[in-house]
Design goal:
heterodimer; A: mainly alpha; Formate dehydrogenase/DMSO reductase fold; about 70% helix; about 0% strand; B: alpha+beta; Alpha-Beta Plaits; 2 domains; four-stranded mixed beta sheet; two-stranded antiparallel sheet; 7 helices; 10 strands; about 20% strand
Chain lengths: ~350, ~270
């Protein structure tokens, strides 16, 4: 029987010093009942100095977002509701599909009820939600959002209610006017509701968000349209050609947006490329871009409804993941002290710029 | 900028070359303002276990450990690091990100220049938290509202100096008329330079969109080692681009939806 050589294991090589130390411990324990330790070496040691290279020990400079899980959900619901209001008005103006108009009005109205509920539950003091409406403050995207949401909810609810009355009581001119006018106002505020969330997170100190403020509103608008179309299809409107075309347009835009984002490999964009947040954003992008686009085109060719239903589910999941991913990316971004401190990749460069700084002021 | 309404435009000069790291400012601040405790967590990387300003820490002494440097305190034996101390605080920016972002108008500018969160108005939306380029303001999850240094507005209204400045034993924290403090800081910088301390700098980002701060600092070395950003920007500078992008997106949404239904079979 030949001896199998032992695998090499990582670890210390025993020497006379290490063995002497072990003997010393035994001697102390035997004679004194107590051992003088070397002290412990905590996890992470040796610790960095606070220098220009590390910032202040690498402690995050910015504070992490403190929004609850309701916020990405609110972005999703609000985005879909705003787009649904637009679908309702467009279908009302351009088609005879009364069923689609009714469903879209109700989706918008339901979103107009759920969104404020989500937003209010996120507040630290929910009973003070109305404080958002005590001022009108264009430089605060959150304030603009609160006003937009309030008006949208009112008009979307009015349009849906008028639609119901029209259906139950009869098609009188005044009620039709109320429905169409409220519907148009809901669409006008709906497009703001679907896009402003991009401005909301973009106009902050969080690097990954403000880096992308130019594209986030487009991205979120496409995402909102995608999910509104898909919700309406799953509610039984999977024969509407208009909805499928709109779904194709939104998914195609998401493909483009995903491509843009993948190629913009800046340091501030790291959280949407790497780590868990990157994985979520990427999965969301695939599920709302290429997957539904392919399925919808295949449906248009073959007429197989199952393909279209799959596209709907994929788009809804993708839209939700997109919002969750972007919020998570904000968390990772806030924890990265290097970007607000403008630290170069390379330690030498930081030292050089640091020296230049003190020389310049001297 | 002059928003004083007859009051003096006040400020803090935190001269870190005089700071001995005693944390009297933190204690005085907590006591006067009746702020809750922070917990007893060990940071594990320095003697600074508080780490940063936040909802329950409005003054925070940073312990910046450097390799041994003569004249920067520390240990001559060459084993222990030198320490630079600096008492951090809300910067009370001239153009404040938190104030601009606040959707309720809870954050206001006081007559003497302080940026103040009105606790009876704040609804805890936490938008100020992500809008501060210095990472100062924070929501207290138990209370629900956002908190930060009030610049002891209550004391200032009573004609007194803020608690931290009052308690500081070395005049590292100086309070007074902002312009006079700037003159003092320049003079002090001159003094330090002439005595050979040539890495002393004044940190006051006047050339950024923040347009200067009411609580400015005199430090040794690179301000980045004190977690002070070289180019803090007030996030409202991104708004124009954002709303323009939103307008284009809104137009595209309307256009695409109309086009999609123009080709519908139900017509």
């Amino acid at each position: 029987m030949s001896r199998v050589p032992l695998p090499e294991v990582p670890g210390r090589v025993p020497d006379s010093q290490s063995e002497a130390r072990l003997d010393e411990i035994r001697r102390q324990a035997a004679t004194r009942g107590r051992v003088d330790g070397h002290g412990i070496k905590p996890v992470g040691a040796p610790f960095p100095h606070a220098t220009a290279e590390t910032g202040y020990y690498g402690i995050p400079l910015l504070k992490e977002p403190q929004w609850t899980k309701e916020i990405p959900l609110y972005f999703f619901v609000g985005g879909a509701a705003g787009a649904a209001a637009v679908v309702a008005s467009a279908a009302n103006l351009l088609t005879k599909d009364r069923d689609l108009v009714r469903s879209a009005r109700w989706v918008a109205a339901a979103g107009g009820v759920i969104s404020p509920a989500l937003l209010i539950s996120d507040l630290g003091v929910p009973s003070r939600f109305l404080n958002m409406l005590r001022v009108f403050k264009p430089q605060s995207a959150m304030n603009m959002g609160a006003w937009t949401l309030s008006t949208f909810s009112s008009f979307a609810a009015a349009a849906a209610f008028a639609n119901l009355v029209r259906q139950k009581v009869g098609d009188a001119l005044p009620i039709r006017l109320v429905e169409n006018a409220s519907g148009l106002l809901a669409s006008a505020t709906g497009v703001v509701l679907s896009t402003y969330s991009g401005v909301l997170i973009g106009a902050t100190a969080i690097p990954v968000w403000n880096e992308n403020i130019g594209t986030l509103p487009h991205h979120f608008a496409a995402s909102g349209v995608n999910s509104a179309v898909s919700i309406l299809e799953l509610l039984g409107h999977d024969d509407s050609r208009g909805l499928n075309s709109l779904g194709i347009a939104a998914s195609a835009y998401e493909v483009y947006e995903g491509f843009e984002l993948e190629t913009k490999r800046t340091r501030a964009n790291e959280p949407v490329h790497k780590g868990l947040s990157g994985a979520i954003v990427r999965t969301g992008g695939v599920l709302s871009g290429p997957v539904p686009l392919a399925l919808r085109v295949a449906y248009a060719v073959t007429g197989n409804r199952n393909l279209r239903r799959a596209a709907s589910w994929s788009s809804i999941a993708g839209s939700l993941l997109t919002r969750v991913g972007w919020i998570r990316a904000g968390h990772s971004s806030a924890k990265d002290h290097r970007i607000p401190l403008k630290l170069a990749e390379n330690v030498q460069e930081i030292r050089k710029s640091s020296e230049e700084l003190t020389q310049k002021s001297a | 900028m002059n928003q004083t309404n007859g009051h003096a435009n006040t400020g803090f000069l935190t001269d870190s070359t005089l700071c001995i790291g005693c944390k009297a400012c933190e204690v005085a601040c907590k006591e006067w303002n009746d702020i809750s405790e922070d917990g007893y967590d060990w940071s594990g990387f320095s003697y600074d276990n508080t780490e940063a300003v936040g909802h329950s820490t409005w003054r925070h002494v940073k312990f910046v450990e450097n390799p041994t440097t003569p004249g920067l305190g520390g240990n001559a034996a060459g084993q222990l690091p030198s320490w630079g101390f600096s008492s951090d605080v809300c910067k009370h920016c001239e153009v404040a990100g938190c104030l601009e972002a606040c959707p309720t108008g809870a954050i206001v500018r006081m007559d003497f220049g302080a940026v103040f969160v009105q606790p009876d108005v704040c609804n805890g939306c936490a938008y100020c938290v992500v809008s501060c380029p210095f990472g100062v303001v924070q929501k207290n999850e138990h209370d629900g509202r956002a908190f930060k240094c009030t610049f002891c507005s209550d004391r200032q209204m009573a004609g007194l100096e803020p608690a931290c400045a009052h308690a500081c034993p070395t005049k590292s924290i100086q309070f007074g008329n902002l312009e006079e403090l700037h003159a003092k800081a320049d003079q002090r910088l001159e003094e330090l330079r002439s005595s050979g301390i040539d890495d002393a700098v004044i940190y006051d980002p006047v050339d950024t969109s923040v347009k200067g701060i009411h609580a400015f600092f005199l430090l040794r070395g690179d301000p980045r080692s004190y977690n002070l950003p070289p180019e803090p920007e007030v996030p409202t500078i991104y708004l124009k681009k954002g709303w323009r992008s939103a307008a284009v997106a809104a137009g595209a949404m309307l256009g695409a939806t109309m086009l999609a239904f123009l080709g519908d079979k139900h017509r």
